[in-house]
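Long-time lurker. I teach an intro course on protein structure, and each term I like to show students one example going from raw sequence to a predicted 3D structure in token notation. This year I'd like something fresh instead of my usual example. Would anyone be willing to generate the tokens for the chain below so I can use it in lecture? Attribution to the forum is fine with me.
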Amino acid sequence: MANRESASSWKDFLAGLRKRGLSGVEFVVSDDHEGLKRAIREVLPEAVWQRCYVHFLRNARDHLPRKADDDCLVELRWLYDRRDLAEAERDLAAWLERWSEKHAKLTDWVEENIGETLSFYRLPRQHHKHLRSTNMLERLNEEIRRRTRVVRIFPNAASCLRLVRALTAETHESWLEANRYLNMELLREHKKEQLRQMAEAA
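-- Reply from a regular --
Happy to contribute to a lecture. Here you go:
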């Protein structure tokens, strides 16, 4: 629990997770919050950062004229469904060429920032859907908000934390058993294949 979203608050949060045993973090997905990004770099320097593409597309609207149609953004969204990075980059180049004259402000901004949203392509294809955005976390947060609003007023912070911990433990069990979001065996096999390809290239 924190009073505000600052770099120090996020750093304390992540450091607290480390202290409680978090290790081996390889991939972090978040929005473009500067304080959170700085905390990730400091506390989890070994992790690859993925900027949530949903937030990215929302931010892209700020670089379009208010009354402009959003066909260009619909096409940009399609890039995230490509099979691999090479295919996405090829289609991005075509997208930039198609829209640069009409929406130069948008295309310049996208060209400069979109790389932050393509980190997920280094993961197994089956993981792309769940790790290119913060949607999975947003759904969990929405459920926590829904359940805490039912209580409305907690007698103290500890009682609120007890409810939130129970909800997250329940969700964790569901993710492991009922709705298995991420099959880590796929990641292990993906890494083995990458090592094999590197060895062959050398």
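Some talking points for your students: Residues 1-51 form one domain. The first strand starts at residue 27 and ends at 30.
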